[in-house]
Each structure stands twice: as structure tokens, then as C-alpha cells.
Design brief:
Length: 485
RNA sequence: GGCCUUAUCGUCUAACGGUUAGGACAUCGGCUUUUCAAGCCGGUAAUCCGGGUUCGAUUCCCGGUAGGGUCACCA
């Protein structure tokens, strides 16, 4: 079963039933990392066999999402590959071919019942509190045997389980797994609309595409015996099975799914999250390299990734931690990158270089800038502050002292030559003044407030620097006259 | 309900028979300081319960409890 010389091939096989959410992306990331780590192949395959649930535009959406994350595939839509096509609806010939093989081997038959009839069997079993098994109603196949079995495609094609037994298998994450006979049944291979079911199609595709590691969520564990019985019937080697633990919703109770508020991953783009931060964060949901380092670039993730370190239990989605990771990535941006990242969220009049650092250290994602603007935290820059003059008073300092301190500050600022007018010099000069006082706040607070008009703001040196000499003088003068009136 | 599976701070996790059970996020406190942010330092906080096995269990086994998954002509 083990063949270490075989080139690693993984795939991400979403169905186009809507947007992609973080669970799907995490599966894609793991498959991607494993392929890249082993210099293998990462395939993107579209599983569009359910025409009922298909949502128009989702293939494009999936592709766009994957591209945003930088998860480039080696074979798949757009770029093709040796096993094209990569859309199941275009691979119907393959499924027919293997259906025929199964038919000839006696492991497939036309389902004689209508959907309603099967439903009656199911209801009856339910009433009798027995598990429903289709194979208990399996028609007499001896009539078909001998001759080339007939199946005209008007009825669904069912799989005939070769052997009813307990299946045991090795999962690279969960280890030894097993399931009893009740997990085995005559499932449908090809539906009456001519499209194969997932159970059948993915196995044929994985076989033809040479997939070595099948990574998927743990919702597939219970149907694994069905897959195994099909491998047996086909007489093919089974790939390595790698089951991923689920990502749980914020309440920690349920698997994170679309109906539990899982967002379209592109919304994270809209909110200003960085794709590498997302990959880093998502990789650490259910996997951990073991050290104390938490920030891993994509390259480092590829090196460190190891299936044996994937966890077994569900990991709860945590927005706070994501924000922290994203902030770490913002900090790592170059000055130029920070600027363009921040500017994207700013109106023209606020796209000023000097604003970049003070915004950068106050946000963890782009959309926080929107919040800052809405809260008026950047108003000081282009609007003269409006405030109650009492706010200029530091604690219970005498008003006259505040006025004289502001006058002193004004003098220092006025005397500063334009070419020396920067936050470092201003800080040196003003701090000298402040230190001569019994409390620095007696000058620094009114100064800061005169410039910003805000309870919370950057320090006065930065403010004075950003506002420029002229505007700074103007605002201090105004504060002095306010207080004097 | 049957079957499968999981279980370490609030959260993500490390420790794969011997540790004062480690780290990160969050939280709380301190420093810096004029406020906020950032930064630095520190605190609170966990092995689900009960039995075994063992000189010794977070770790191995069994049972319980709780959670999750699954029982489709969906994937």
C-alpha cells in the first residue's frame, strides 16, 4: 500500500454551490502545503455533479478566492493539465467507462425502484426503529447475471457491495479507524440525470489523476467504508486518507458552516485582512508545528507542515486571534506597502504619508480605519477642533498656568526654523519645557488637546508635526484666546 | 436512536509514562507616559469524571459524561 517513491498529488475539490468559506480554504491550504512540501502536484477539481444545487458564478468565485490566497494549482481550471478536463460534468465518459466495468464484474445494477418506492422502505425502517439499508431490498440480480447486464441509464445505477464486512483502515491523522456492516450499502453510482454521485465520481477522478493523498473534512469518515468497498470492487489501490478536524463556530458547539454564519472568504479581503495572515491563521487551526513561534510565512509553513501534527479535535473560530495575526503581518509590511495598504482605506484628503504610522499602530485590519474615521479620530487633521475650553485644563491646574504654558510652547514652536520642524526636535524642545514643570501634563495635555480636540489622540509632537507649523500655531493661539475669554 | 469519533487555561495549542503542565490570543495589573495606541514586564487561569495498568499517568486500557460527525438520486 505504501509507495514512498510515488510523487505526491493532492487535490482541492470544491463543488460550485456558492461562496467558499474558511473551512474549505483550510482544506485547500493543507492540501496545497503538503503538495508543495513534497514537490508534488496540487490539483483543483470542480465537483459539479449536482446541477440542482449549483450556483451560477461560484466557479469563478472559488478561483478568485484561491488566487487571493495565493494558492496556485498545478492542474485545473484555466491552466488545464495532463488529466483535463477538471470539471466533473465534463468527465462523464470516465464515469461511464468505470460503470461499465462494475456492471461487467457484477458490482452494479439498475435500480428497479422509483424514488418514492425507496422512500417507503425508508419510512418503514424508521417506524420499526431499524436503520434503513437499501441492500435489504436489493432486487434479484440472478436474472441479470450471465448475460451482459443491462442498464439503459433511465434508472439510477447502484453499486452492489462486494462483501458485507467490518472495514478497518488507517487514516494519516486519526490513525486506526473502523466501521461496522451498517456503514455499507448499495449506494447510487450514477443518478437518473446521468451525473455520477460524489461517492463514485471522486474515486474515479482521484484514480485517473493519480491523487496520493485525499484530504477532506471528518464528515466523510462515516462514508469511508463505502469508498473502501468501491476500491475493492474496482481492484484499485486506495490513496492515503487524511481526515481534517472541523472548524467550529464562535459558540464552539457546531461545525462552522454557511448557515452558522461562516463568511464568504472574500469578505476578509473586503475587511482588509492580508491573505498571508489568513493562511497563517487558518493553518494553525487544527495544526501546529510544535514550537513557540506563531508567525509563519507561506514558505515557512510549507517547510514546517506535517500531516502527523494535525490535531483530532475541532478548533473554534477566534476573531481576536485572527486580528492579532493580521496586525503582526501589517507590522511586517515595508513602509511603501504600509502606505498603499492604509491609503486604500482613506479618502483623498487624508492620504498623507505622516498619517500612516499613527494609523498603522492603531488598527489590526483595514476596516478598522473606517471605524476610526467614523469615530472622528482623524478629524483633527482637516477640521479645526471644536471643544469645550475646560477640556484644556490638566487635572486641577490653575487656568493661568495653563495659559502661560501654552504661550511658552507657542514661543518655542514659533522660534523653530521650518527645516528643523519635525516631531523629534519638537519633542526635545517641548519636553525640556515640560520637565521644568512640576508635572509634564500641565503643558503636554493642553497642547495635545488644543491640537486634536480629542480625548484620545497621538501625542502633541506627532500632531504638531502632521499639522505643520502654521496650523499648529493657529490652534494654540485659539486655545489661548479661548481660555483667556 | 444506530454507527463513527473527540476531550489540556475562556480560546488556539505544547508536553507522544517522570515538567513547578510550556507558549500564544483574550483578560487583569505594572512600567513608559499628557490621553490613546504601540512597546516592555508581570498576574489570574487547564489535564471532563470514575476505575484500572504502572514505582509513576495529561499521556496506555475500560466505563461514564459531554461535544462533534454521519445515516440522500448533497457533496
Amino acid at each position: 500500500m505504501e509507495n514512498t517513491t510515488k510523487k505526491v498529488v493532492t487535490r482541492f475539490a470544491p463543488s460550485p454551490t456558492g461562496f467558499m468559506h474558511v473551512g474549505g480554504v483550510r482544506t485547500a491550504i493543507f492540501a496545497y502545503l503538503w503538495a508543495r512540501k513534497n514537490n508534488g502536484t496540487f490539483i483543483l477539481r470542480i465537483e459539479d455533479t449536482d446541477k440542482e444545487r449549483e450556483v451560477e458564478g461560484s466557479i469563478e468565485h472559488i478561483i478568485k478566492s484561491l488566487k487571493w490566497f495565493g494558492l496556485d494549482w498545478d492542474e485545473g481550471p484555466d491552466i488545464g493539465g495532463p488529466n483535463a478536463p477538471y470539471k466533473q460534468s465534463e468527465r462523464l465518459d470516465s464515469y461511464q467507462k468505470y460503470a461499465k466495468i462494475l456492471l461487467e464484474k457484477g458490482f452494479a445494477y439498475a435500480d428497479p425502484y422509483t424514488e418514492d418506492e425507496v422512500e417507503v422502505f425508508r419510512k418503514k425502517a424508521e417506524e420499526e426503529k431499524r436503520p434503513f439499508l437499501y441492500r435489504e431490498h436489493r432486487p434479484d440480480l440472478s436474472a441479470q447475471a450471465g448475460n451482459p447486464p443491462t442498464w439503459d441509464g433511465s434508472k439510477p445505477l447502484r453499486f452492489k457491495v462486494p462483501e458485507i464486512k467490518r472495514y478497518e483502515w488507517e487514516d494519516l491523522v486519526f490513525g486506526h479507524l473502523s466501521a461496522g456492516e451498517e456503514a455499507l450499502d448499495d449506494f447510487i453510482l450514477i443518478k437518473s440525470d446521468g451525473y455520477p454521485t460524489y461517492n463514485f465520481a471522486h474515486i474515479i477522478d482521484d484514480l485517473e489523476m493519480g491523487v496520493t493523498h485525499v484530504m477532506r473534512g471528518q464528515e466523510f469518515i462515516s462514508s469511508t467504508p463505502k469508498f473502501l468497498s468501491l476500491y475493492d470492487a474496482l481492484g484499485i489501490e486506495r490513496p492515503h486518507l487524511v481526515t481534517l478536524p472541523p472548524i467550529m463556530g464562535k459558540d464552539g458547539k457546531k461545525k462552522l458552516g454557511k448557515r452558522d454564519g461562516a463568511k464568504d472568504v472574500l469578505e476578509y479581503d473586503d475587511d482588509g485582512y492580508l491573505p498571508e495572515a489568513m493562511i497563517n491563521f487558518l493553518s494553525f487551526l487544527g495544526w501546529n508545528p510544535g514550537g513557540e513561534k506563531e508567525i509563519y510565512s507561506k514558505k515557512e509553513l510549507i517547510e514546517a507542515f506535517d500531516i502527523s501534527r494535525i490535531g483530532h479535535s475541532g478548533a473554534m473560530w477566534n476573531d481576536d486571534k485572527l486580528d492579532w495575526v493580521n496586525k503582526e503581518y501589517i507590522k511586517m509590511l515595508s513602509e511603501g506597502e504600509k502606505e498603499s495598504y492604509i491609503f486604500e482605506w482613506l479618502p483623498k484628503e487624508l492620504q498623507i504619508k505622516k498619517l500612516v504610522p499613527i494609523i498603522t499602530e492603531r488598527i489590526s485590519k483595514g476596516s478598522d480605519i473606517k471605524t476610526m474615521i467614523e469615530a472622528g479620530e482623524l478629524d483633527f487633521f482637516y477640521k479645526e477642533p471644536v471643544y469645550e475650553k475646560e477640556k484644556l485644563i490638566y487635572k486641577d491646574t490653575d487656568k493661568e498656568i495653563i495659559i502661560s504654558n501654552l504661550k511658552n510652547a507657542l514661543e518655542v514652536i514659533t522660534m523653530t526654523e521650518e527645516e528643523n520642524y519635525n516631531k523629534e526636535n519638537l519633542k526635545t524642545l517641548l519636553m525640556e519645557l515640560a520637565d521644568s514643570l512640576e508635572n509634564r501634563g500641565q503643558i503636554l495635555h493642553p497642547l495635545r488637546f488644543a491640537l486634536s480636540g480629542l480625548d484620545k489622540s497621538p501625542d502633541p509632537f506627532i500632531l504638531a508635526d502632521i499639522l505643520g507649523k502654521e496650523e499648529t500655531i493657529k490652534r494654540i493661539n485659539k486655545a489661548i484666546s479661548n481660555l483667556s475669554s
